[in-house]
Write a structure and sequence with these properties.
Order of helices and strands: EEHEHEEHEEHEEH
Keywords: Coiled coil, Ligase, Metal-binding, Zinc, Zinc-finger
Strand content: 5-15%
Distance between the termini: 135 Å
CATH architecture of one domain: 2-Layer Sandwich
Radius of gyration: 47 Å
Shape: elongated
Structural class: mainly alpha
Largest sheet: 3 strands, antiparallel
GO biological process, one term: regulation of canonical NF-kappaB signal transduction
CATH class of one domain: Alpha Beta
InterPro entries: Znf_RING, Znf_RING/FYVE/PHD, Znf_RING_CS, Znf_TRAF
CATH topology of one domain: Herpes Virus-1
Helix content: 40-55%
GO molecular function: ligase activity; zinc ion binding
Protein name: RNF41 ligase
Number of helices: 5
Strand order of the largest sheet: 2-1-3
């Protein structure tokens, strides 16, 4: 929907009105036939139709384009009243700056920031409302440190609140101890499995070393026997040499 034409000061060119809602263009788009529409209006129209609402020429969302620059400039220069005029705001802004003004307007109706409060209050009166709001929070004057709402003043009991807080802390501590215990057990199980796996690997390596040592001893004995045989042959050869 567009901007209510009644808000504008002075004459508004017909070409700056939405062809669907007949209000001043808001976030405008233009069809190839040069008819202009509010973005929300034309998108809603094209859900059920496939033509321009003015001249019935076929159009599609993909054919829509931004407004011509000179028309956009004319649109932005239009002067209009703040939407909070009925609450007392007398500001008149250009269309280009109206949104910025209305976001900060002292006459805007805004919700109370206190949880549970449904009051809508003018921005300029918010501080005064917060000072007396029945949903405002404050720290307990008795020193228990608990934050209370004014509406709960008569029901607040420091001892009961502290006891509840203590129980919550105790429950939280028990949960953390259990979590730490489970974590330690899991870590110990993991380390135990790792050590068993490591022990198995070391045992296999020891067996392999034993096997290698046994083969080496066999080779040494073979070499010693061969050496004795060789020595005997040398001695026999020496004897035969002497005889000759």
């Amino acid at each position: 929907m567009g901007y209510d034409i009644e808000r504008f000061v002075g004459y508004v060119n017909e070409g700056l009105l939405c062809s669907i809602c007949r209000d001043v263009l808001e976030d405008p788009l233009q069809a190839p036939c040069e008819h202009a529409f509010c973005t929300a209006c034309i998108h809603g129209w094209l859900v059920h139709h496939s033509n321009c609402p003015e001249d019935r020429q076929v159009i599609d969302v993909s054919l829509l384009r931004p407004l011509y620059r000179y028309m956009k400039n004319d649109l932005n220069r239009l002067q209009l009243h703040c939407r909070n005029r009925e609450y007392g705001c007398e500001m008149v802004c250009s269309l280009e700056s109206i949104d910025r003004h209305e976001r900060e307007c002292e006459y805007s109706q805004i919700p109370c920031s206190n949880a549970g409060c449904t009051v809508q209050i003018e921005r300029r009166n918010l501080d005064g409302h917060l000072a007396v709001c029945e949903y405002r929070s404050r720290e307990c004057p008795n020193g228990c440190g608990y934050t209370i709402l004014s509406a709960e003043d008569t029901q607040h009991n420091c001892v009961a609140e502290l006891r509840t807080e203590l129980e919550l802390l105790r429950s939280e501590m028990i949960c953390r101890v259990e979590e730490a215990k489970h974590e330690m057990e899991s870590r110990l199980d993991s380390q135990r499995r790792h050590m068993v796996q490591k022990e198995s690997i070391l045992q296999n390596e020891i067996e392999e070393l034993k096997s290698q040592m046994s083969r080496m001893m066999t080779d040494v004995r073979s070499l010693m026997a061969a050496e004795r045989q060789h020595r005997q042959e040398l001695e026999q050869a020496e004897l035969e040499k002497r005889e000759l």
